[in-house]
Amino acid sequence: MSEQSDIFTDNYLVQSEYRRFTTKLNEVLHDILKHGYGEAMIRISISKENKRMIVFEAGKSYQYTVHLSEMQN
Questions:
Q1: Burial level of 56, CB count in 10 A (0-12/13-18/19+)?
Q2: Which range of residues forms the domain containing residue 30?
Q3: How many structural domains compose the chain?
Q4: What domain of life (predicted)?
Q5: SS3 sequence of the chain
Q6: By three-state DSSP, how is residue 36 classified?
Q7: How much is the average pLDDT of 20-26?
């Protein structure tokens, strides 16, 4: 079961999916390093309109859809 990331922040401002992905990735990696063990897996595929579908699994499953233009910032 994948958990779709939220579209809006608490103050209802839209954040980029790429930013959400990198934030979650940093959180999980920090936890793994802090505890000294853990496992995470990332799957990336190309979907329509040249977007990247990222599935990140680390205990839970997170799914992000990122357009290439978001990654060029």
A1: buried
A2: 2-71
A3: 1
A4: Bacteria
A5: CEEECCCECCCCCECCHHHHHHHHHHHHHHHHHHHCCCCCEEEEEEEHHHEEEEEEEECEEEEEEEEHHHHCC
A6: coil
A7: 93
Structure tokens at 48: 């329509």
Q: How many CB atoms are closer than 10 A to CB 19?
A: 13
As a residue count, the chain comes to: 73
Which CATH number belongs to the domain containing residue 49 in this structure? 3.30.720
Residue whose tokens read 């793994």: 32
Higher pLDDT among residues 58 and 11, named by residue: 58
Q: What is the residue type of 17?
A: E
- Phi/psi at 50 (5° precision): 60, 30
Tokens matching residue 36: 């000294």
